[in-house]
Amino acid sequence: MKSEDKILLAHGSGGKLMHNLIKELFLKNFFNPILAPLDDAASIEIASSRLAFTTDSYVVKPLFFKGGDIGRLAVCGTVNDLSMKGAKPLYLSVALIIEEGFPLSDLEKIIGSMVKASQEAKVEIASGDTKVVEKGSADGLFINTAGVGLIPPGVEISAKNASVGDVVIISGSIGDHGIAVLSEREGLSFQTQIASDVAPLNELVEALLNVTQEVHVLRDPTRGGLASTLNEIAEASNVAIEIDESAVPIKDEVLGACEMLGFDPFQVANEGKMVVILPEKWAEKALEALKKHPHGKEAAIIGRVVAEPKKKVILKTSIGTTRLLDMLMGEQLPRIC
Amino acid sequence: MKSEDKILLAHGSGGKLMHNLIKELFLKNFFNPILAPLDDAASIEIASSRLAFTTDSYVVKPLFFKGGDIGRLAVCGTVNDLSMKGAKPLYLSVALIIEEGFPLSDLEKIIGSMVKASQEAKVEIASGDTKVVEKGSADGLFINTAGVGLIPPGVEISAKNASVGDVVIISGSIGDHGIAVLSEREGLSFQTQIASDVAPLNELVEALLNVTQEVHVLRDPTRGGLASTLNEIAEASNVAIEIDESAVPIKDEVLGACEMLGFDPFQVANEGKMVVILPEKWAEKALEALKKHPHGKEAAIIGRVVAEPKKKVILKTSIGTTRLLDMLMGEQLPRIC
Questions:
Q1: Residues of A in contact with B17 (CB under 8 A)
Q2: Taking the model in full, what pTM does it have?
Q3: Is residue A93 in a domain?
Q4: DSSP states of A91-126 as a string?
Q5: Does A8 sit within 8 Å of B53, measured CB to CB?
Q6: Do B148 and A44 touch (CB under 8 A)?
Q7: A32–B125: do the CB atoms touch at under 8 Å?
Q8: Is A171 found in the same domain as A202?
């Protein structure tokens, strides 16, 4: 078998290989209008309600890291996927795949952390499943959460709705989650005080929608980081996005770690941040609303949507040059979520 | 660490240890009225619609077996969990955890099989997720599917609704899936022609509900087999269930394989069968409706709900004796679904 016929780690990276895999294998096979937009959650019209429905598996390694654990991640990640459709998250399902021999005490800690996060996000667990596989057949614990939420009438948020003239906001500093997880990994020679930003974003979205329902795009830049997310939006909306590098909040420690490791902070995962794209007339009020919430206090306007070059993201660097901000290619940080 | 502090394979068996784990760890922590009944799917009231919502991970080994594969299983299993609430399955989510190096050709076969099964069940895939973990960190492929469906007005199906006097029907022969999967496992010295029964049951449920909405209980006897399912129902409804052994359809080859391996066919998993419990007055018509459908043509009345001994299942054997049919204890067949 040739190596291109095998699944590579990079197929799970959130980058180009993964996008190709999804397009080639999944969309081709499962095509339907609900799945097609490739947003973080599907929007399902049932009788009078518009439901959002989403799923994510969590395979983060290690299971515990500064600022969170796989349990908090599994709740927040799915809450956020629903929130990125503008939906009010209501119910989650939780499915565990546990490796034989996994310590019950760790499982209890993780479940406790899921409970806390679900209370924080005001969602309930509606369905569960547990599978145990033999020692060596999984790596400790994998968690899948699916979620349903309700999309308020009038809200139409999608990666394909970015319009020329819109303003791009990020809700806080980028790269924290990726660097926090990485710094816990065994054998790494650095340690940071950076904690993961993993947090539920539904209150932040609610605050935003209280300002205006005219929000065009919401996206949480998880796997593949801000770069991949912006590229996805530029492609889906057939526009260009111009980002002012110096406006993007990045913690010094994250920058330092990225320099040491040769990573681009724009490609490092976040788990408690979101990109907001909306008409310029709402930008200041939206920013103000975000900054009032603890999860949005470092929010900043970082760029705008322009017409050309279509489907590209342009970074205006602090030294005045510009460069293309490309989607992550290959796998930079496997098992970051 | 003592061995009782670790997760054992038996914690995933569908038997007593798993029930204890769910009760002790999950229900205690996640308690809410929606999750509490521990049915196969949650029922969620949203505006005017009643949604069913469920999740299951699939870790079957091997991935391909006579009569199906993990893809067909992952679609049918979740379709069936929704169907067991009387819901019309509408949308599934699909989340893959793939081991690095997994052959793309196998993935394509499995996706193809999911497409076929979802067409058969008339459900659409609304959301997806792909994670890849390093070689050795998973065993080929795990699939999670969550599902949402709509519960028709007036339908109230739950494991706690079995009433004294009700009739117990099984929709076909038992044990086929477990034996089919087992016979594919490497190193096993027997081979059967038994194919897995894995199939979507939603049409069968629709046919049944066309006869009467007064169906009390529907359950598909998957992990832990018919014995565990009947015990769960007896416990949830606080009744006894009396089963006539000779009335239960079991294929000769399944019986033979069970004898050889020391298995009780009542504890072997099914993936395309269901237990129906409903008032006696509807029994004959219900049976007739089931038998008309290809997936129900071997349906049979196998027992009834009685008052005592509460929470027990009594098997009247073909030689005239009776024995308690106990829930599976420990793990008989790991990774059967």
A1: none
A2: 0.90
A3: yes
A4: EEEEEEEEETT-BHHHHHHHHHHHHHHHHHHT-EEE
A5: no
A6: yes
A7: yes
A8: yes
